[in-house]
Amino acid sequence: MELRVIDKEETELAIEIAGEDHTFMNVLKGALLETEGVTAATYDVNPEQSGGQTEPVLTIKTETDVDALDALEDGADRVIEKTEGLQDAYEAAV
Amino acid sequence: MEDYEVQFVDRSERSARFVVRPITPAFANGIRRAMIADVPTFSIDTVRFIENSSVMFDEQIGLRLGLVPLTTPPGEFERGDEVTLSLDVEGPETAYSGDLVSSDELVQPADENIPIIDLKEEQRLELEADAVLDVGKEHAKHQGGVAVSYRHLQAVEVVGDAGEFDDEEPEILRGVIEEQAADAAVETGGYEPENGQLVPTEAFEHDLTNRYPGKDVEVTDIDGAFVFDVETDGSFSVDELVVEAIGTIEDRATELKESIQL
């Protein structure tokens, strides 16, 4: 996973997450939309039409008092909460 | 930590069906994709032929060998690790996957009865093969989950009685329902009517009129409840596949988090 910040402002972030596909990006986007302080989150796995860019680009917008990079970290934490919870629930049901 | 509920509908070593809730479609799909493409399994990748006097080319045999599932205990190996296997069969005899001799006790053919080639008199197949651990995204032969899908759990609501003179047409439904109209249901396939119970549609031969005779019913999807149907190729058990797949997503979230902090 290689990260490259494309655009960074206080409440906005566009970041390339190289080596990932829909499997992780969509889970992350879903988690971000559930994260407090995040007003918009989306990703685009660009087709070749856009100048050869094919790695997914994640875009986040946050509320005024929330730093976009912190929000991304919270989103990643949220994914971990989900995966841990589901693993536990599965193992409990076995 | 997020709370989930998992309930099994059927469960065996290589296939299972279970309900997870409450889960978002995004997360459900992430797990499905991870089970298919991101959980690594061993598969033969390089073959050195010592003798091949069979009727097929080396490459054709190589392809067939690659498709033999090999057991892959999770956590024991890393992606890229190799294990060597050998095969030596002389005709007249059929060479089977079970004839492969592995150098590692943990990595064995998952099934012993997969035919590789039928050898006639005077024909012989002797080879050495390297199996490599890789993911389904790289090549389909590395897929551990071969049939992985999910669909909504469904609820059946009785909206009235069927008209007395209506044609008795079947009402076909496939999947799993959660019983919510036990009063109008009859026992089918060993499933007593009891509200809250999960009933696979096989229990009433996929026909709602068998379960709710003389009733008019409506079927709705239950929000946030998904029925997963998982089948593995034998490389590992369903339980290992599910837990490993969720683990790959977690690993990536952890990696992302660590990269941000730098």
UniProtKB/TrEMBL annotation, chain A:
Biological process, per Gene Ontology: DNA-templated transcription
Locations listed in the record: Cytoplasm
Oligomer and partners: Part of the RNA polymerase complex.
Catalysed conversion reaction: RNA(n) + a ribonucleoside 5'-triphosphate = RNA(n+1) + diphosphate
Protein name per Swiss-Prot or TrEMBL: DNA-directed RNA polymerase subunit Rpo11
Similarity-based family: Belongs to the archaeal Rpo11/eukaryotic RPB11/RPC19 RNA polymerase subunit family.
One term of GO molecular function: protein dimerization activity
Organism: Halovenus carboxidivorans
DNA-directed RNA polymerase RBP11-like dimerisation domain sequence ranges: 13-88
NCBIfam families listed in its UniProt record: PRK01146.1-5 (NF002236)
The keyword ATP-binding belongs to this UniProt entry's keyword annotation: no
Keywords: Cytoplasm, DNA-directed RNA polymerase, Nucleotidyltransferase, Transcription, Transferase
TrEMBL record, chain B:
Gene3D superfamilies noted in UniProt: 3.30.70.3110, DNA-directed RNA polymerase, insert domain, RNA polymerase, RBP11-like subunit
SMART domains referenced in this protein's UniProt entry, alphabetically: RPOLD (SM00662)
Domain DNA-directed RNA polymerase RpoA/D/Rpb3-type, first and last residues per copy: 15-259
Subcellular location: Cytoplasm
Keywords: Cytoplasm, DNA-directed RNA polymerase, Nucleotidyltransferase, Transcription, Transferase
TM spans (from-to): none
PROSITE patterns the record matches: RNA_POL_D_30KD (PS00446)
GO molecular function, one term: DNA-directed RNA polymerase activity
Keyword Membrane carried by entry: no
NCBIfam families listed in its UniProt record: PRK00783.1 (NF001988)
Record family assignment: Belongs to the archaeal Rpo3/eukaryotic RPB3 RNA polymerase subunit family.
Protein name: DNA-directed RNA polymerase subunit Rpo3
Protein source organism: Halovenus carboxidivorans
Gene: rpo3
